Amino acid sequence: MADKLSAQHNPKQNHLLAVLPEDVLMRLAPQLELVPMRLGDVIYEYAEQLQHVYFPTTAIVSLHYVMENGASAEIAGVGNEGIVGISLFMGGNTTPSLATVYTGGFGYRLKARHLMEEFNRTGPLMRLLLRYTQALMTQMSQTAVCNRHHSVEQQLCRWLLLTLDKLPSNELTMTQELIASMLGVRREGITEAAGNLQRAALISYRRGHITVLDRSGLESRTCECYDVVKKEFYRLLSDTGTAKQFPN
């Protein structure tokens, strides 16, 4: 079974791993462990000491803050374009956020010490991860601005587009309740916004399944935040080849 899974998956399905020089990837490859990342899995908890980093391939992980009253909101999503666990190489080693899987799939897990051994060579991996971190910080800051200043419908369009950028298809398995939790808004707001998009024939929503019917239409209804994030990923990562899912 393990051999069959390995044949279906490859570390280069993650865009950061795919653009590493072959000698760097060869050093890391024996330590990369293919792991299932199931919907709802907690990758790490608040203030947890990081033992691993994750390179998603077909899964998507939500980074979000949880308030004392249990309310939460997503600050960023990480899919096959990135890495989960940036606090490790940024020097903090723990994180104030929670990381959970919201689109199930697979990814590669790497022990913290193996990542840091390669990072501390101050070579291609270090430069790539620092660029990615800057792009991720742009996504985080833009999410905060968007949640404060833009309508629920605009936020939903932004979230759908950023999620689609991390998937091979135009379909998502996601309940309105979960999306509301991601965006930190009331479920009724998501129901109304999704209804508007469905009546405009931009999406089809049925029993927790969302199909995007008109991507360009979504792009016309979203705020500038999606474009800001997309352009920053492209600016920072275009010369590495990892920005191909963010066309300029």
Automatic annotation (TrEMBL):
Domain called HTH crp-type: residue spans: 150-216
Pfam families: HTH_Crp_2
GO terms of molecular function: DNA binding; DNA-binding transcription factor activity
InterPro entries for the chain: cNMP-bd_dom, cNMP-bd_dom_sf, Env_Response_Regulators, HTH_CRP, RmlC-like_jellyroll, WH-like_DNA-bd_sf, WH_DNA-bd_sf
Membrane-spanning segments: none
GO cellular component annotations of the record: cytosol
Protein name (database record): Crp/Fnr family transcriptional regulator
Native source organism of the sequence: Methylovulum psychrotolerans
